[in-house]
């Protein structure tokens, strides 16, 4: 009876091999419950680095001694790691054991696995516990260099913007803070909800990339939103006030959200908040704005240069900030997928529309509604990266998810540029009310004041 069964299996294997069909069968059908020992739980290596794995395949006991078979060892994702070795039947000893070194080479940062398959004719058995391979990115520049230089450029941008603030209008905004309240609700309620929903919908089984999108939605916009408000004739006083208030309130809202996020949403109570960097950044922002205001009040002749060249200076600083971050993190675009594209487009668009609707429901002017919508939709690039670096994500997982904040910030800026281009083409990019920013009027007022 056993001979008939084995003979039938041989005929079936031969027939499938002749047809060239790769059919998988249940583990243990061909040579029993064969086992694999990798000598380690996980293999970590750098891009371009080669390591050897001490592989041991044993307990190989064919049910039919005449069965022709071989083992194949390979990397599941050859875009991440390379390895391909064939072990013929003749290399196994009488006890059904083989031991040797397998070369594995890292190609690109990310994850793969070392798979072991038994093949006989057209039938394949796969070992159920492959070796996890983590390929780490070769560091070129320290991450702290990127963070500090980006922060310096952002602060210089705030110093630049501080010289054009109108203290009378700024005091009015603080006394009747409906606009900043809309900005706070949009940043710390609407945007996190949108980020969480998009993350769960696009990556239902991957919490690290969901976390990256959530941090991107939660982080205050920064100086790029203020520059966009300048070009789109927004309320620059409201824009800067909202950015400053959001950066200060982030010290309270970020820990609260991360507490909820870590323990309830992602079942992780080890997410950390970089209080030192956040509080230092908020204090530096306020100091730079104060210096800019003092320069305008005390050294008006010096600030006249900034008035005349505000837009070019803003563009140069913005390009330097974006170029530095993208240039040092270019590798993330290798991970660009359609899900990232959808998230990077939908998050700023949804944030803009939701904030504009909320602003109009609270009877804000067209200029204020535009300004607050820009404040919500122009996404920060630096702060989400800092938050992710402070989380418990290990490499290369951290590098894999950085594509979300960088791509989202860039595409949100592209959407604003397209919006600006459309407004210019149709002649709509004009000052709509007294709160709208007009640098030519600002220069005229300054020169009139000097003449007086």
Fold blueprint:
Blueprint: H1 2-19, E1 23-24, E2 35-37, E3 42-46, E4 50-58, E5 70-75, E6 81-82, E7 84-88, E8 98-106, E9 110-120, E10 123-126, E11 131-136, H2 143-162, H3 167-175, H4 178-202, H5 207-218, H6 223-231, H7 236-265, H8 275-298, H9 300-308, H10 310-328, H11 338-361, H12 366-377, H13 382-389, H14 397-401, H15 403-425, H16 439-451
Parallel strand pairs: 1-10, 3-11
Antiparallel strand pairs: 2-4, 4-8, 5-7, 5-9, 6-8, 9-10, 9-11
Helix pairs in contact: 2-6, 2-8, 2-10, 4-5, 4-7, 4-11, 4-12, 5-13, 5-15, 6-7, 6-10, 6-12, 7-8, 7-12, 8-9, 9-16, 11-12, 11-15
Describe the fold and architecture:
The protein is elongated. It has helices at residues 2-19, 143-162, 167-175, 178-202, 207-218, 223-231, 236-265, 275-298, 300-308, 310-328, 338-361, 366-377, 382-389, 397-401, 403-425, 439-451, and strands spanning 23-24, 35-37, 42-46, 50-58, 70-75, 81-82, 84-88, 98-106, 110-120, 123-126, 131-136. The model is unreliable at 1-21 (pLDDT under 50). The protein folds into 2 domains: 29-136, Sandwich (Immunoglobulin-like); 143-451, Na+/H+ antiporter like fold (Up-down Bundle), CATH 1.20.1530. It is built from 16 helices and 11 strands. 58% of the residues lie in helices and 14% in strands. Strand 9 (110-120) and strand 10 (123-126) form a beta hairpin. With 452 residues, the chain is of the alpha+beta class. Strands 1, 3, 5, 7, 9, 10 and 11 form a 7-stranded mixed β-sheet that branches. Its main location: membrane. The chain crosses the membrane at residues 145-165, 177-199, 211-232, 244-266, 278-297, 309-332, 338-358, 370-388, 400-422.
